[in-house]
Amino acid sequence: MASYTRFLGLRYGFSRQRSRFTTLVSLASMLGMLLGVASLITVLSVMNGFAGELRGRILALIPHGYVEQTVVQSAAEYAADTAALSASLLAHPEVLAVAPFARETVLFSGPYRQQGVVLTGIDIAQQSALTDLAQFMLLGSLEDLREDFSVIIGSSLARILGVVPGDDVRIILPQVRTTPLGLFPRSRLLKVVGLFEVGAQQDSVLAYVSLNSANRLLATGGTRGLQIRTSDLMAAPALQPSLQPLIAGRGVYRPWSETQGSLFRAIRMEKLTVSILLLGVVLVAAFNVVSTLVMAVTEKRRDIAVLRTMGATPGGISRIFLTQGLALALLGVLAGTFLGVLLSIYVADVVDFFEQLLGAKIFDPSVYFISRLPSRLLWSDVALVGAAATVLSVLAAIYPAWRASRIAPAEVLRYE
């Protein structure tokens, strides 16, 4: 008798003697919970995959941190100071590589259009130790930049400007020169010697020249300093307190999160928003549990009255219907979790199957920069979704169970 509430709750939940309509509503509530949980886990995994793909593409071209020079120096003083600062930074246990850079936002002009571009001067010999730019080269190589006033641009930028390797583009600098006819912006032709492609916004806004060419182009302007690669990309922002004393007022340390952090914060916010929206599906399934239990209480009024006359307490009656509701919900949660995990692992294969079946490319690489749907399953997401669905199911079952405990046996059995 100590476990009669559990026994009766499971019996009421899975008995074949219920009405067809009650059985149909019970199946609908379980199916709704299954689909809600499975879809939420799958979508979160796909969003994790896209975030990881985007992080890998964008941060492949971005050093882990910068030291931007804040003190104006002559060329000789800057060279000596840069060498001393590089040695100090390399002595830090978390710093793996350091190289000088020069950067400025300029205007590129091609045969068809103009485009604002972030022009970066890099040390050709050391760039591979700082970023993965060499791995994303479509045409040409970093060594081609040794030719004076040559440039490597992104594939999207090349399409916008209407140029190919071997063509010239005009660079217009945010500096002016005085002529007898007045003030004119400085400009120069650069030869395109290579194209890179990472499949992100960087393909249309970044361009690279050698450090020597950058110093000659940006002689009186631009940002100069050092690029830094650390042992852990995600820990780079936390190194600021330990690196700033080494800089000693000669510059400012800026981790990658200051320039790209807003994008990844937006991705996290998007993931949170989608999670809340899809949680609404689980919430609807939880309300179906309410409907199921309300009908079950109505059907079992006579049974409840008999149990009360046999000594069952109101708390015991509540636990019976709580057990019934939780059994139905947990069955849907477990099945949905299993299906969601399975889909998260094989979602790319499922998409490939439908592409072959329909004879169409759902994700065209020329449009989306991906050939397969990325997915990354995080067990923390699975646990969070399962816990949220279980809590909603418990909350949904409380009210019908409480109403069952309030049924008066005398009123039900008066005419029996």
Automatic annotation (TrEMBL):
Domain ABC3 transporter permease C-terminal: residue ranges: 276-409
Transmembrane regions: 21-47, 272-298, 326-348, 377-399
Record's keyword terms, sorted: Cell membrane, Lipoprotein, Membrane, Transmembrane, Transmembrane helix, Transport
Membrane topology of the entry: Multi-pass membrane protein
Domain MacB-like periplasmic core: 26-243
InterPro entries according to UniProt: ABC3_permease_C, Lipoprotein-release_system, LolCE_TM, MacB_PCD
Subcellular location: Cell membrane
Family: Belongs to the ABC-4 integral membrane protein family. LolC/E subfamily.
Protein name per Swiss-Prot or TrEMBL: Lipoprotein-releasing ABC transporter permease subunit
